[in-house]
Amino acid sequence: MVPTPQPTPQPTPQPTPQPTPQPTPQLSPQPTPQLSPQLSPQPTPQLSPQLSPQLSPQLSPQLSPQLSPQLSSQRKMKVYLHDNKPGDSRLPHDSGTPLSVEDLTALGVLYYNLPVDFPDSKERLENIAATRGYTNRDELEVSPETMGPAFEALLKKFFMEHLHQDEEIRYFLKGVGYFDVRNAEDEWVRIKAEAGDLLILPAGIYHRFTLDEANYGGVIRLFKDHPNWEALNRSAETDQDEYRKNYLLARSNGSFLV
């Protein structure tokens, strides 16, 4: 009997080796240091100046009512020693020796600048009037057109050295005028008054007034119920006037009402 042939055994197939997985580059932790500067809190100090309250003082002058008197000083008032030379009183007569508003204050002369077209000037004028008891006022135009033939004689009278037994308050609206006042050395101090200037001359101070060559001045005069504007021309008798003595005492003590 012939044996039945057996099938040749087949080799067992080997599993195909799988490729080794590569590390995912997207999961690399290296980007983190690159992001850290963006998340750093250091930019905050750069923003703080915009939020800092220290900027307020820079803005406050624009909003503070105390600035108004300083706005006036954008046009610096011209004050100087008179040259004492003869000639037309309406010329500048500038000696070249400038003085300041502080020099006027030492003489008891108060100066305010209230620009005619400035929004708060009217309110400030009312406050000054109320504080100093000026209950009345009027407007006056000094010019050849408004005063006619009396103009030259009136201007000559204004320029005589004199004093009043009450304050003299003038707020210039138009034109230019010169106030001359005596200082402690008995020199003439010339004040150039223009539109927007308010001057208060104390009772008892020797002074005089004139216009410039344009011959025009428009002013508001402020006064109390019964002002005493009688002009007392300088003389030995006037030197002994009670108001003159009180003025000299206040000037020496620096005790003027401001």
Automatic annotation (TrEMBL):
Q: Where is the composition biased (Low complexity)?
A: 47-74
Query: What residues bind Ni(2+), as annotated?
Result: 162, 164, 168, 207
Q: Where is the composition biased (Pro residues)?
A: 1-46
Q: Which UniProt keywords apply?
A: Amino-acid biosynthesis, Cytoplasm, Dioxygenase, Iron, Metal-binding, Methionine biosynthesis, Nickel, Nucleus, Oxidoreductase
Where does the protein end up?
Answer: Cytoplasm; Nucleus
Q: Pfam families of this UniProt entry?
A: ARD
Task: Enumerate the catalysed reactions.
Answer: 1,2-dihydroxy-5-(methylsulfanyl)pent-1-en-3-one + O2 = 4-methylsulfanyl-2-oxobutanoate + formate + 2 H(+); 1,2-dihydroxy-5-(methylsulfanyl)pent-1-en-3-one + O2 = 3-(methylsulfanyl)propanoate + CO + formate + 2 H(+)
Q: Which domain of life is it from?
A: Eukaryota
Report TM segments.
none
Q: Name one GO cellular component term.
A: cytoplasm
Instruction: Kindly give the InterPro entries that the UniProt entry links to this protein.
Output: ARD, ARD_euk, RmlC-like_jellyroll, RmlC_Cupin_sf
Q: What is its main location?
A: cytoplasm
Q: In which pathway does it act?
A: Amino-acid biosynthesis; L-methionine biosynthesis via salvage pathway; L-methionine from S-methyl-5-thio-alpha-D-ribose 1-phosphate: step 5/6
Q: Where is this region: Disordered?
A: 1-75
Q: Name the EC number(s).
A: 1.13.11.54, 1.13.11.53
Record flagged with keyword Oxidoreductase: yes
> Which GO molecular function annotation, any one, does this entry have?
acireductone dioxygenase (Ni2+-requiring) activity
Q: Which residues bind Fe(2+)?
A: 162, 164, 168, 207
Q: What class of enzyme is it?
A: oxidoreductase
The similarity comment for this entry is:
Belongs to the acireductone dioxygenase (ARD) family.
Q: What does this protein do?
A: Catalyzes 2 different reactions between oxygen and the acireductone 1,2-dihydroxy-3-keto-5-methylthiopentene (DHK-MTPene) depending upon the metal bound in the active site. Fe-containing acireductone dioxygenase (Fe-ARD) produces formate and 2-keto-4-methylthiobutyrate (KMTB), the alpha-ketoacid precursor of methionine in the methionine recycle pathway. Ni-containing acireductone dioxygenase (Ni-ARD) produces methylthiopropionate, carbon monoxide and formate, and does not lie on the methionine recycle pathway.
**Name of the protein described by the UniProt record:** Acireductone dioxygenase
Please give the organism. Answer: Botrytis galanthina
Question: Organism classification, top ranks?
Answer: Eukaryota, Fungi, Dikarya, Ascomycota, Pezizomycotina
Q: Which gene encodes it?
A: ADI1
